[in-house]
Amino acid sequence: MFKDKILHLFDLDGTAIDSLHRVAPCLEANGDLNLSRYRAEACQHEKIMADSLLPLADHMRALIDKGESVGICTARVMRKSDYVFLRQHGLKTALIASRDRLHKAFPPEMAQAIMRSGDAAYKAAWLQHLKATRTETTIHLYDDHDGVLAAAASLGVVTFDAKTINERLDLAFRQGMQEALDQQAQDDFDMLPDEALPLFDDHGALTFGAIMQNQ
């Protein structure tokens, strides 16, 4: 069923979605999510809906629209508001590996241990599960967490650093916008009708008129 397929697996926070306004206070020094603080302080509907998209979201959405195999691997405990946000922005996928779904893929004690683990160990568990159940699928993981990227690479997963990609896409967008604005300004200037720039030949009325008349 999954022969010769690539599974494009996207992290959410810091990769496809900018949720820093609510997630930053819940991060540990190593970048891991403090789950209890996150649940208590960052999961209100209004805060979730105030998230915005990062440039990689466009790539994720394009892959979905093309019918590619796309999934989500997130440290979140997904709630209704998370699904509403994803659906509104065209980022909903059939495969979502999240903390609230661990019990569907692992035995109870193992699921509890994975739930309590740091981001790298947590996502490594999901990646091992996906590799074991989709043996002929190559996983491409997009993530912004250095520890997760290192763990994924050690498992033979093709990794993409979302921090670098988003920075480059953002720079390209801003440069492209500036070039487009510059070109539009030039086009507007080139299209000015002749009557918009009438010939002014009353040299005597100009402060440098005497100089011109002496030429």
Explain this structure to me?
The protein has 215 residues and is of the alpha/beta class. It has a single domain, classed as HAD superfamily/HAD-like (Rossmann fold). It contains 11 helices and 7 strands. Helix 5 links the parallel strand 4 and strand 5 (95-97). Helix 8 packs parallel to helix 9 (146-154). The termini are far apart.
Q: Descriptors for this entry?
A:
215 residues, alpha/beta, Rossmann fold, five-stranded parallel beta sheet, 7 strands, 49% helix, disordered C terminus
Give a brief description.
The protein has 11 helices and 7 strands. With 215 residues, it is of the alpha/beta class. Helix 8 (119-133) runs parallel beside helix 9 (146-154).
Number of helical runs?
11
How many domains is the backbone divided into?
1
* Structure classification: alpha/beta
Highest CATH level, the class: Alpha Beta
User: Any idea what the CATH superfamily is called?
Assistant: HAD superfamily/HAD-like
Strand order of the largest sheet: 5-4-1-6-7
CATH architecture: 3-Layer(aba) Sandwich
Report the C-alpha radius of gyration, rounded: 26 Å
Name the overall outline.
globular
The name CATH uses for the topology is Rossmann fold
Q: Main β-sheet, in a few words?
A: 5 strands, parallel
The helicity comes to: 40-55%
Q: Could you tell me how far the N terminus lies from the C terminus, measured between alpha carbons in angstroms?
A: 85 Å
Mean pLDDT, all residues: 84
